[in-house]
Amino acid sequence: MTEGNFDLIPLLDYINPSVLSYQEWINVGMALKHEGYTAMDWDSWSQADSRYKKGECFAKWDTFKEDGLGTVTGATITQMAKENGWVSDYSAMSNDAHELDWNSTIDRDYRIVDKNWVEAKEIREPVNWSPVHDLITYIDTLFESTDKVGYVTETYPIETDKGTIYKPTKGAYDRTAGELIQALQKCNGDIGAVFGDYKEEAGAWIRFNPLDGNGVKNDNVTDFRFALVESDSMELGKQYALFKELELPIATLVHSGKKSLHAIVKVDARDYQEYRKRVDYIYQICKKNGLDIDTQNRNPSRLSRMPGVIRDGHKQFLIDTNIGKANYDEWYQWIEDLNDDLPDPETLSEQWDNLPDLAPELIKGVLRQGHKLLIAGPSKAGKSFALIELSIAIAEGRDWLGWQCEQGRVLYVNLELDRPSALHRFKDVYQAMQLKPANLKNIDIWNLRGKTVPMDKLAPKLIRRSLKKNYQAVIIDPIYKVLTGDENSADQMAHFTNQFDKVATELGCSVIYCHHHSKGAQGGKKSMDRASGSGVFARDPDALIDLVELELSDDIIKTRIDKVKCEHYKKALQEQNLAYYQQHVSLDDLQSRAQMQKHFEQAIDDVLVRAPYVDAMKAAVHAIEISTAWRVEGTLREFAKFPPVNMWFSYPVHSIDDTGVLADIQLEDSKPAWQKAKDSRKSKKEKLKERQEKLETAYSALFDGTTPVTQKELAEYLDTTERTVLNYVKEHDGFIAQKGTIYQVAQSEKNEK
After folding, report:
1. Residue 473 in contact with residue 542, Cβ under 8 Å?
2. pLDDT score at 746
3. What is the CATH number of the domain that holds 694?
4. How many Cβ atoms sit within 10 Å of the Cβ of residue 663?
5. Structure confidence at residue 70 as a pLDDT band (50, 70, 90)
6. I want to staple 257 with a disulfide (CB 3.0 to 4.6 A). Which of 271, 316, 624, 730 is the partner?
């Protein structure tokens, strides 16, 4: 690089003069003269071509007039070098430099080989050639015996400036591979007797994907197995060498009879959309590694050169079969592994006295910034509400379930609720938490209901939108909407959870998400073993918060209701008749719901004055009646294990239990055997009542007021069988079953019964 100018000479190393046309060679010379280089520079580079003639460059040089150079500038050389693998060290000067848009992907270098250091691989034309054997091997490698094969032997001429060229017709496409192979085995070397005579000046063609027998368009392709990779601008030996170096999963490699090789590459796509993506990826890798391929060959119905025929005096022959990686997936993984951008190992002694600072704690004693948190629990645990509460706690710098949160910005990725519901839910939770919304600017909500994509596609989009936002946390709710693969597969779930690592690493923020429990009782399991699916879910995050429901007795519920009523009566007396309260209410009375109600009615005789307190008390009692109790346990990687936290969930918020009534409740499967036996000794009447209540609760939760509830839905909700649900219905006079659907019987119908 000279001052103020870009040095083109090193770029000439990427341009092989021996594969250029005469005009392309002239263009290089004209570009060099335009940019102020000498004829010697052009001559030195041209000597690598076998067509080189001493003195020709200098003679031509003098004919290049500046006003006649037109648009042939240094950019011509830059583009030619770039197409052959050159990449600028200055990304801003590269022709590939551009601003990412919302749908761009984060690209990698993907340079595996330097074509300038790859030695050409010799291709030997067969001496004792068996055309029929070549063609049988080709067909047998690419097709099943019942596949219909398209081929062309008939052509039509077109006159051009370079002479007559022959174009293929539509050809035939109604015979199976098995039929063709059988005919070839009996043809005594006469391929024309099987496929039809072809014009030797033109050669013959064959399609590499099976057809439906009704045509030769993309819509007629029945299986997207292969793609054609061809380059006609490079030395054949170099092409062959690059195919080998790139480990392309090539099923068949055919010499075209002229200046290109036809590689039929394994793609094995499920459909046309996946075929396009995979072919684009193959072409991208080839181009980045100096293999200048013909991009017009993308179509799955494309014709390729048929081995076993003559083309203008040269053989179209089969060079090799099944070379490179075994299949596309194996090759793709190999390419990605070579471009993994992993850091180099470091020696501990070099860091011992200068250790990096630990990431700050986002949730005190639980989670550091940039780490991952999983909340696991069953349905009805209010996991989504817990995530919204956490969003608010971080935005406002408040505590969450008893843990102080560092204040910062949060992105809440909403995948389940429609936009109005999501916004209203945040406001409802703010109000239920009795928090002033002082820092709403710290919360961003990304509403993606109906627009979700798998997590490996969502991650780069999320990263691009968030790079300049300085989020402390990204909360994704729920993850089943973006789940990729089988949740019971360890390797597939490892790939899935790796996407969270990418987000955390690229944005320097915490990634927080929730997952559901597996079916069945959870009390006897460790907290990290309760999440559904592969153990990867529980072992991947840096912190796991697990919720298990506690079974509430009637006594606990009654005690809570009595206590809250006493508190409301006390408040009313203090506010409306303090003198009476001080004179007549004893310490024992404060603990008695009946006594406090009596004082309330005696001291405040105006019904209108009592009404607001009665309404507030009813609301508080209702909140208790709909409350569920939960035990929070955790598994932490960075911090010491915390003692279990007991809490209540009363729509729409969670609150820590400050009464201590939940501390002594044991989880079902953790109870000792004697207690399980005692609990099981219930009367038939008690057991019937339990079953009826279960059915009523499940039906109430599932029935939306219009759509009937099915027997299957009830079975899934109750985690039991459909037969058991039917038994529940038969012993409950409030329900009937008809053809798999459960209906609730109106009171009038009950009376008639």
Report:
1. no
2. 66
3. 1.10.10.10
4. 11
5. low
6. 316
pLDDT at 527 over 50: no
pTM > 0.85: yes or no:
no
Asked whether residue 119 is domain-assigned, the answer is: no
Any idea what the Cα angle at residue 243 is, between residues 242 and 245, rounded to 5°? 60
Mean pLDDT of 159-167: 84
Calpha distance 442→435 (Å, rounded): 15
663 in any annotated domain: no
Which of 140, 135, 210 minimizes the C-alpha distance to 175? 210
Place of tokens 């075929």: 275
Q: Are residues 178 and 269 in the same domain?
A: yes
DSSP state for residue 263 in the 8-state scheme: E
Distances (CA, A) of 287 to 89, 97, 509: 18, 17, 36
Residues 469 and 527 in one domain: yes
pLDDT band at 68 (very low <50, low <70, confident <90, very high): very low
Bridge partners of 320? Answer: 253
> For 699-729, what is each residue's pLDDT tens digit?
887 887 778 889 988 888 887 888 888 989 9
- Note the helical H segments in 187-323: 192-195, 236-245, 272-288
Range of the domain at 731: 682-752
* Residue 146 in this model has a pLDDT that exceeds 60: yes
Whole-angstrom Cα distance, residue 12 to residue 159?
Answer: 36
Instruction: Write the DSSP string, 588-632.
Output: TGGG-HHHHHHHHHHH---HHHHHHHHHHHHHHHHHHHT-EEEEE
Which pair of structure tokens corresponds to residue 96? Answer: 């590939």
Amino acid at 152: V
Residue 630, strand partner residues: 549, 647
Give the CB-side neighbour count of residue 202, counting CA atoms within 13 A: 18
* Mean pLDDT score, 420-433: 94
Q: Of 543, 567, 599, which residue sits at a domain end?
A: 543
Are 525 and 575 in the same domain? no
Instruction: Write 730-738 long-range contacts (CB < 8 A, 24+).
Output: 731/688, 731/691, 731/692, 732/691, 732/692, 732/695, 732/696, 734/692, 734/696, 735/695, 735/699, 737/711
Please determine, for residue 91, whether its predicted confidence score (pLDDT) is greater than 50. no
Give SS3 for 646: strand
- CA distance linking residue 125 with residue 315, whole number of Å: 8
Q: Domain boundary at 95, 120, 143, which?
A: 95
- The two tokens of residue 299 are 């179509």
Neighbour tally for 646: CB within 10 Å: 20
- Side chain identity, residue 171: G
Q: Are residues 705 and 621 in the same domain?
A: no
How many CB atoms neighbour CB 436 within 10 A? Answer: 8
Domain identity same for 149 and 272: yes
Cβ–Cβ under 8 Å, residues 667 and 378: no
Please report whether residue 171 resides in a domain: yes
Q: Look at residue 451 and give its three-state secondary structure.
A: coil
Task: Please name which of 478, 624, 636 lies closest in space to residue 559, comparing C-alpha atoms.
Answer: 624
pLDDT computed for residue 9 by the predictor: 85
CATH of the domain at 271: 3.30.70.1790
CATH classification at residue 522? 3.40.50.300
Q: What pLDDT is attached to residue 668? A: 60
- Res. 112: pLDDT tops 80: no
pLDDT the model gives residue 483: 75
Model pLDDT for residues 535-574, shown as the tens digit of each residue: 666 678 899 988 888 888 888 888 889 999 999 999 999 9
Check if the beta carbon of residue 665 is closer than 8 Å to that of residue 629: yes
Q: Is the bond preceding 343 in cis, omega lying within 30 degrees of 0?
A: no
Q: What percent of the chain has pLDDT over 70?
A: 88
Tell me how many domains the chain contains: 5
Closest to 715 (Cα-Cα) out of 737, 698, 731: 698
Tell me if 596 sits within 8 A of 566, measured CB to CB: yes
CB 53 within 8 A of CB 21: no
Is 644 within the bounds of a domain? no
Do 365 and 333 lie in one domain? The reply is: no
Q: Are residues 202 and 233 in the same domain?
A: yes
